[in-house]
Amino acid sequence: MDYPDRFDVIIIGGGHAGTEAALAAARTGSKTLLLTHNIETLGQMSCNPAIGGIGKSHLVKEIDALGGAMGLATDQGGIQFRVLNARKGPAVRATRVQADRVRYKAAIRHMLENQENLTLFQQAADDLIVEDGSVKGVVTSGGIRFTSQTVVLCTGTFLGGIIHIGMERQTGGRAGDPPANALAQRLRALPFNVGRLKTGTPPRIDARTVDFSRLAEQPGDTPVPVMSYMGSRDQHPAQVSCHIAYTNERTHDIIRKNLDRSPMYSGSIESVGPRYCPSIEDKIHRFADKTSHQIFLEPEGLDTHELYPNGISTSLPFDVQLALVRSIEGLENAHITRPGYAIEYDFFDPRDLKHSLETKFIDNLYFAGQINGTTGYEEAGAQGLLAGLNAARRAQGKDAWTPRRDEAYLGVMVDDLIRMGTQEPYRMFTSRAEYRLLLREDNADLRLTPIGRELGLVDDARFTRFEQKRAQMEAETERLAATWVQAGSDEAKQLEPKIGALPREYRLLDLLKRPELDYHDVASVTGQQLEDEAVIEQVQIQAKYEGYIVRQQQDIDKLRRHESMTLPASLDYTRIDGLSNEIRQKLDAARPETLAQAGRISGVTPAAVSLLLVHLKKHG
Ligand code: FAD
C-alpha cells in the first residue's frame, strides 16, 4: 500500500546515527519518519555500554552543543564517570562514561517519542524508490511505500551481516537481531563502491560468579563529571565501580593453541577489524612478547549482574572462550551469560559522499554511521546529526551545513572520510585534528551552539543557558583583567606561598596564566568567586592557553587567506620537503591550480597544504 502521508525526511535505522538524524531533522521543523526494525531496540548499544573516551567525548559534546540526544541520555544513564588525561592539557582531556544499557536506551526512546514532527514506524526497509537518479522514498518488508523528499540510511552493521563464533556462522545484524539483506542487495545493485568490514564483542560474565576480592577496584571520579552542557550530577543514577583483571601466560597459551579454530586465523573472516579495539586473539598474535593484557570488568547496568569484560573481544569457539575466561585470576568460576562473536558487514566507500553526507550517485540520499566505514556510537551519532540536518535542509530548499576542520571534530571526521576513505573501521582520536587546542571538549558549546541555534537545532532553554554562561565568562574575564594586585599589598601576600613576593603590580588575569595559580587562588584575593564550574573552567583555560590559542587561530586565518594562491603548472612536487610519496603522486597526477583545489584532493591533508604554502612562500 501507499502510506497516505508524505514525509520531508525518512531515516532508516534507529541506532545511534538514526536517532540523532531523526531528532535533528525533526528539530528543524521537517516532517520526519524514523523507520526501524524494532522500536524496542531504539538507541541500543550493540557492544560496550560506554559513551565517550579520547576523541569520542569531543564528538558527544559537539552533538550536545548542537542540541542532540547522546550527552543528555548519558547523564541520565551513566553509572560511572571519569575524566581521562585529567593531568594533561585541555585539548586531549576526555570524559568517559559507563552507562546502564537499559536506562540509556529508555532516555533515547523518551526523547524520540516526545519530539515534535517525528513519527516512528517499526518494519524493515527493504527497497529504495529511486527515479531519475533521485531517491523518492522507501518500501518496507510489509510492502508499505513511504514517500519523502530525502532519505537517510543509518543501517549500522546490519547490511549483509554475518556473525561468527568459531567455525559457526549465521546471518544477523548483531546477536539476536536479523540482518538487512534485502536492502543490502538493493544497494549493491546501485552504483556504490561496497566493501566488507568486521567488528567483535567479548563474552558477557555473570558478576555473581566473579571473585572481586582478587581484582583491583576502579571507582569513578569525584566530583562526578557531567557529559551534557544541559546536564547535572543530580540526574545521574547510583554510581558504581569497575574492576581490573589481567590475562596471563596460561590465557595466552589457550588462545595460541586454538588459533586454528578462530574464524579470523582460519581464513573464514577476511575483512578488516577495528585497529584500536582488537580481539584478544589479535592482541596475542600481534604483541607476542607481552605476557599479560589488562581487562576492565564493567557493569552493564544497575539492575543486572552482567559484566562487560573490556579487552577480550573474541570470535573463538565457546569452549575456548570459557577456558580463556576461567584462566584469569578472579574469574576461575565465571559463568558466561552470552558468548562473544565477530560480525562482518557491508560498508560503502565514504569517498562516494559529499561533505553534506549526501551520496554523489543518488540525489537526496544520505548515509550516516557505520555504513560509512566508521566504528563507535559517537562517530555514528555525530554523522547522523549532520546527515539528518542536511536532509532536512535539502527538503526545505536550504544549503547544506558542512562544518570545517577548524570548527569541529565532526568536520575533521567527515573530511577525513570523504577525502581519504577508510580501509579499516574509522574511529576518532584527538590526534586526527590539527587544530585540537581550539577543538576542545570543554568549548564545543562556544564553538557550535550559536551555529546550532541559527540552523534551528538548539531550543530556547539550551540557548538561554548558553548565553548566560557566555555572559558570565566574559564578565569574569573582564573583572580579572581590570583588577590589579599591588606589590606588597595584603592581596599579594595571600598569593606569596605559591608564587613568592610580587616585584611589581599585576593584573589578576595575568597572574592566572601562571602554572602555580588556579582560578580560586586569584579570585579569592578579591573576596568574590564564581561557583559555576563550567564557567570557571573556561575563564581559566582561556587565560592559561591564550598565547597558543591565538597562534593556532592565526595559522587557520593564514591558510584561509592563501587558499586562492596559485600553484605553478611546472611545480615539482618531489622537491617539497615533508610531503609523503603518496601525496606527492596525487598532487602530481591532479596538478591543482590553487591551494584550495589541492586541499580538496582525496588524501591531501591540511598539514600537506601547509607545507605547500611554506614552499610557495619560500620559492615564489
Ligand atoms: P547500529 O547501532 O548498528 O544501528 C542500526 C539500526 O538500524 C538498528 O536499529 C537496526 O535494527 C536498524 N536497521 C538496519 N537495517 C535496517 C532496515 N533495512 N530497515 C529498518 N531498520 C534497519 N564500536 C566501537 O566503537 N567499539 C567496539 O568495540 C565495537 N564493537 C562492536 C561489536 C559488535 C558485535 C557490534 C555489532 C558493534 C560494535 N561496535 C563497536 C560498533 C557500534 O555498535 C556501532 O559503531 C554503532 O552502533 C553504529 O551505530 P549506527 O547507528 O551506525 O548503527
Automatic annotation (TrEMBL):
Coiled coil: none annotated. It is found in: Cytoplasm. Its cofactor is FAD. The keyword Nucleus does not apply. Residues 543-614 form the tRNA uridine 5-carboxymethylaminomethyl modification enzyme C-terminal subdomain domain. NAD(+) binds at residues 273-287. PROSITE patterns: GIDA_1 (PS01280), GIDA_2 (PS01281). Keywords: Cytoplasm, FAD, Flavoprotein, NAD, tRNA processing. FAD binds at residues 13-18. SUPFAM superfamilies: FAD/NAD(P)-binding domain. It holds the Pfam family GIDA. Homodimer. Heterotetramer of two MnmE and two MnmG subunits. PANTHER family: GLUCOSE INHIBITED DIVISION PROTEIN A, PROTEIN MTO1 HOMOLOG, MITOCHONDRIAL. Belongs to the MnmG family. NAD-binding protein involved in the addition of a carboxymethylaminomethyl (cmnm) group at the wobble position (U34) of certain tRNAs, forming tRNA-cmnm(5)s(2)U34. This is tRNA uridine 5-carboxymethylaminomethyl modification enzyme MnmG. It comes from Larsenimonas suaedae. The gene is mnmG.
